[in-house]
C-alpha cells in the first residue's frame, strides 16, 4: 500500500507544477534532476578546496602566506562593501531606513578590516617581509581596483582629485579629464620628472576601461547623489547622517591610518625609508591629513575639514619620541 501524500506536500507539488508550466517547463524533468542530484556539502558550496589553493607564495619565507591570505580576505570584504553600495544606488524607495541599514553594513565590514590590520602590523616577521617583498615588484596594494571602485561608487570624481588641484574641477567637467587628476595617481608619479611608475602604468592599462565605465554609470547616482536625492526629512535623519560620517571616517581616515602603521612598521628606518614595492610615495600619499579626501564634504563643518586626519601627525610624532 503506497504512502498517503501529506496535504501540505501535495499543495507544494501543485505550486511547483504551476510554476514550471508558466515557464514552459515540465515538472517531471526537474524532479528527475533533483532525484539524481548529489547532496550539497559545505565544502562544495563555498568551493573550499579551490579557495585554499589560491595562496601561492613566490618565496620560501613562511610569512609570505600570511601576507597573501590577508590581502585576499581584504578583497573579499571589499566585494561585500561594493555589493551593499550597489544596492543603495539601485534603490528607488528613497528611505533613510534602507539607506542607513546598508551603510551600517558597510561600516561593519570596514570595522572588521580596520581591527584586523594588526595581522599585518604585528603578525609578520619584519626581516622576512623585507626579503620576500623584493619578489613582489612592481605589484602593490595600491593596485586594488575594488578599493578604487568603492571610491567611485561613493562620491563624484571631482571629490577625489588631488588636493592641490581639487578646486579646479567640478561635476561639470568631463569625466575623462577629471579621472587623470585623481589623488592616487599623484601617489605613483615621480615628483621631479612627472613619470608614472610601472605600478601605475600596469594598473591603468588593466583597469581604466572598467573604472571609467562604472564612473559613467554612476555619474549622477553615487552614494553622495543618492543622499541628496532623498526627501528633506529623510536627509535630516540623524542615524543616516551619523552612518555616512562614520563611513567617510572609516574609509578616508581610519583605514589609511592603519596602512600608515604598517608602512612605518616595515618600511620606515632611521636613515630614510624603504621604498614601497610599487614605488609609491607612501609618506605623501597615505596620510589622510595630506589629501583630505571626503566622500560627503557637505556633512562636515569647516573646522572638521581643516583638521581632517590630523591625529596621524600627533600619533607619528609621539611614536617617534
UniProtKB/TrEMBL annotation:
Keyword list (alphabetical) reads: Dioxygenase, Oxidoreductase
Q: Which GO terms describe its biological process?
A: L-tryptophan catabolic process to acetyl-CoA; L-tryptophan catabolic process to kynurenine
What Pfam families would the database entry show? Trp_dioxygenase (PF03301)
Q: Which InterPro entries match?
A: Trp/Indoleamine_2_3_dOase-like, Trp_2_3_dOase
* SUPFAM superfamilies for this protein: Indolic compounds 2,3-dioxygenase-like (SSF140959)
Q: Output one GO MF annotation.
A: heme binding
Is the keyword Oxidoreductase in the record? Answer: yes
Supply the name of the protein: Tryptophan 2,3-dioxygenase
Amino acid at each position: 500500500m503506497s504512502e498517503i501524500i501529506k496535504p501540505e506536500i501535495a499543495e507544494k507539488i501543485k505550486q511547483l507544477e504551476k510554476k514550471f508550466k508558466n515557464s514552459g517547463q515540465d515538472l517531471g524533468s526537474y524532479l528527475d534532476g533533483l532525484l539524481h542530484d548529489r547532496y550539497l556539502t559545505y565544502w562544495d558550496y563555498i568551493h573550499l578546496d579551490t579557495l585554499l589553493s589560491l595562496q601561492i607564495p613566490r618565496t620560501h619565507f613562511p610569512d609570505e602566506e600570511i601576507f597573501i591570505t590577508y590581502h585576499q580576505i581584504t578583497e573579499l570584504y571589499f566585494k561585500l562593501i561594493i555589493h551593499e553600495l550597489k544596492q543603495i544606488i539601485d534603490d528607488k524607495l528613497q528611505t533613510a531606513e534602507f539607506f542607513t541599514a546598508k551603510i551600517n553594513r558597510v561600516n561593519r565590514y570596514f570595522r572588521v578590516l580596520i581591527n584586523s590590520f594588526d595581522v599585518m602590523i604585528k603578525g609578520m616577521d619584519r626581516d622576512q617581509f623585507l626579503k620576500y617583498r623584493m619578489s613582489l615588484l612592481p605589484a602593490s596594494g595600491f593596485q586594488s581596483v575594488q578599493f578604487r571602485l568603492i571610491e567611485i561608487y561613493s562620491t563624484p570624481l571631482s571629490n577625489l582629485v588631488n588636493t592641490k588641484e581639487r578646486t579646479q574641477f567640478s561635476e561639470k567637467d568631463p569625466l575623462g579629464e577629471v579621472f587623470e587628476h585623481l589623488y592616487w595617481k599623484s601617489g605613483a608619479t615621480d615628483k621631479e620628472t612627472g613619470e608614472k611608475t610601472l605600478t601605475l602604468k600596469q594598473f591603468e592599462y588593466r583597469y581604466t576601461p572598467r573604472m571609467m565605465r562604472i564612473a559613467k554609470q554612476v555619474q549622477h547616482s553615487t552614494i553622495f547623489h543618492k543622499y541628496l536625492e532623498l526627501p528633506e526629512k529623510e536627509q535630516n535623519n540623524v542615524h543616516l547622517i551619523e552612518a555616512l560620517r562614520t563611513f567617510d571616517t572609516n574609509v578616508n581616515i581610519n583605514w589609511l591610518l592603519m596602512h600608515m602603521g604598517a608602512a612605518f612598521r616595515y618600511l620606515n628606518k632611521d636613515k630614510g625609508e624603504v621604498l614601497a614595492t610599487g614605488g609609491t610615495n607612501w609618506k605623501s600619499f597615505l596620510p589622510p591629513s595630506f589629501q583630505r579626501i571626503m566622500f560627503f564634504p557637505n556633512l562636515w563643518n569647516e573646522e572638521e575639514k581643516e583638521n581632517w586626519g590630523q591625529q596621524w601627525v600627533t600619533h607619528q610624532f609621539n611614536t617617534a619620541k
